[in-house]
Amino acid sequence: MSTVKTGAMLELKKVSKTFNAGTPDSKKALDNLDLSVQKGDFITIIGANGAGKSSLFNAICGTFLTDSGSIILDGKDITFLADHKRAKSIGRLFQDPMMGSAPGMTIEENLALAAGRGGWLSRISKAERQDFRDRLAVLDLGLEDKMGSRVGQLSGGQRQALTLLMATINPPKVLLLDEHTAALDPGTSEKVLNLTKSIVESQNLTCLMITHNMQSAIDLGNRILMMDGGKIITDIRGNEKKNLTVSALLKAFREKKGVELSNDRMLMI
Amino acid sequence: MDIIITALELGLISSLTVLALYLSYSMLSVCDLSTDGCFTLGAAVGAVTALAGHPLLAVPAAMCAGLLSGLVTALLQTYLGVPSLLAGIVVNTGLYSINIAIMGNTALLNLNKTETIFTKARTLMQGTFMASQYKLAVIVFFVILVIVFLSFFLKTRLGLAIRATGDNRAMVRSSSINPFMTTIVGLCISNSFTGLSGCFLAMYQRSANVTIGSGMVTIALASLLIGNSFLSKTQNITIKAVGAVLGAFLFRLVYTVALRLNMPASMLRLVSAVIVVIAISAPYLRDRFPEFKRRFENRRA
Fold this sequence. Notes:
A: 2 domains, six-stranded mixed β-sheet, about 35% helix, B: mainly alpha, two-stranded antiparallel sheet, about 0% strand, globular
């Protein structure tokens, strides 16, 4: 792991990834992609299915090794670092609320694993238990009184909120949210989104969020990226983003792509 | 009474293998098919060490042998990409040759005149109130030791990580823990218990043969599932471990009674196979039953 001088928290330089290269199924998931994320950025990412949004996250997390290019996190080149080692500084939430926690284990045990404090042979201490209780209380879901219950008994929304807590219990350098409220009902989805906002703000986290909801893509964060064909085709930030409307965003997409939107999911407003 | 004591002793000896499967099967979600060979390995190493005049050293030696066997099984299914069931089968097959080699190219070792941990215990306990039950005392001591170890270990951070590996592997990775590491540690520990179990059986019956462990994985699984079915409500790890031991004893007891009722000894394996099938498919069929019933009624209507 070499140290590279850079001001950004996360930097992707000319990152490419092609799946099934050399076969008829060949699919370019990331195409020479450049991205620089500043510390404290909250970036929302939109794009049709297959645009490369999740591939971008997979590349950052190390789910696969990129074909070319480099990934630099907080000045350290992590291009070839194993995924579980990157996980120390990268938190990630998926669309499926079941993915982030162990259903057969208790809330407290899940949190202890995520926190990863103490040596391998240390057990959950009283102080740690109290800390978990305090953090769970912030979620306002009553989970602090169910620390001994198995996570499998929780609802999807509760589990996703718990996963959010687990991903941020040691503040990550980058938090990746991959449509993490898409599988929840509208009310729960809003609640988890508000929780996300307050945790990201209070810890001043650097955060990337994939969403198909154009309105929340506009409302949240300080920068919005639109992806297509493994590239970032639109990058709007600052005041320009504040004044953005859904119709203006759709217009921008049409102009960049030169075609009408064909994907219904893209149109979710 | 003697019959029950014998059933208890044999049940407790096999309960060490049941506890090994409790760790690998229930916690890691790995069905470790190297169990049979590893059990024999423990018996062979224990017997050879005892024959060499080190009855006490035989116990840790058998555990170390088991640990090494677990290490190989684990490396195959992690870093070498062999599917976990196949890794167990392959190791089991390879161990057959290794076990014969360890026993000095014979299929049977006789410990009749050899000092074992049990004869040591008999000498030690002579004149005390435990004198008549010296075998039971030794086995109970080790079973308690293993249960205490497991109930402590599975609540440590490493233990939690091992349990999570069988529950949600992706979550383990995102907690910055390498699931390969947890699988390796888990299988090393569980196989050391299997080796211990084999060592005790060889010393108990004063002989080790190359088929001493065959069918052990099914017998232990049956015992584990019997124990589970009694304690399906609780999530407490210690109680579940005790349940596994209870299951091993009950299995042995039923078997002993069946023998008294003139069931041929060779039926043991069939009985254990049937128990495993019932224990696994009964809950499945119970859950599906309402669906079957509706389909059936629909057809008749």
